[in-house]
Design goal:
Number of domains: 2
Strand content: 35-45%
Mean pLDDT: 83
Number of helices: 3
Shape: elongated
Distance between the termini: 53 Å
Order of helices and strands: HEEHHEEEEEE
Length: about 150
């Protein structure tokens, strides 16, 4: 109805209509129309390519304490890329081996010498890592176990 009256957003307009109902009686109707405000502007979306996002995710894994502590550089591989349903949003799945079991910086801990394969799932949206989980049990962003 607002469009029919030519109202712009955030305006109020009063329309008065007078009509003769019976020869001797005149009725006046007054209508007030208030246009609803414009919807909030869409937040700025930062376009980031899949290749750029993949590099961001890989750098994140390389710099995470688990990989930095004892990850074996030549074993780091991208094994899957999943396009998610958000703008400029992908999940990257990496696998690598480390020289010891466990997560994070384990300096000073007694560690078993055992090759351990890790799977890291990194979600990058608009150039930012928004989620990072290792082996479905370690929150790489918070550096603590995921409560399950």
């Amino acid at each position: 109805m607002v469009a029919l009256l030519g109202l712009s957003a955030c305006t109020t307009e009063t329309v008065t209509r007078t009509e003769t109902v019976i020869q001797t009686e005149t009725v006046t109707y007054t209508y007030t129309f208030t246009a609803s405000p414009s919807p909030s502007p869409t937040p700025d979306i930062t376009p980031v390519s899949q290749e750029q996002s993949q590099q961001i995710a890989e750098d994140y894994v390389r710099n995470c304490p688990t990989f930095a502590f004892d990850g074996i550089e030549e074993t780091l591989r991208l094994v899957e890329t999943i396009t998610l349903r958000c703008p400029y949003c992908w999940e990257f799945v990496f696998r690598f081996q480390s020289r010891h079991a466990g997560y994070g910086d384990r300096t000073g801990q007694v560690l078993a010498q055992v090759l351990t394969t890790h799977t890291a799932r990194i979600i990058v949206q608009e150039g930012e890592v928004i989620q990072a989980v290792m082996d479905d049990e370690w929150d790489m962003m918070q550096q603590k176990p995921i409560k399950g």
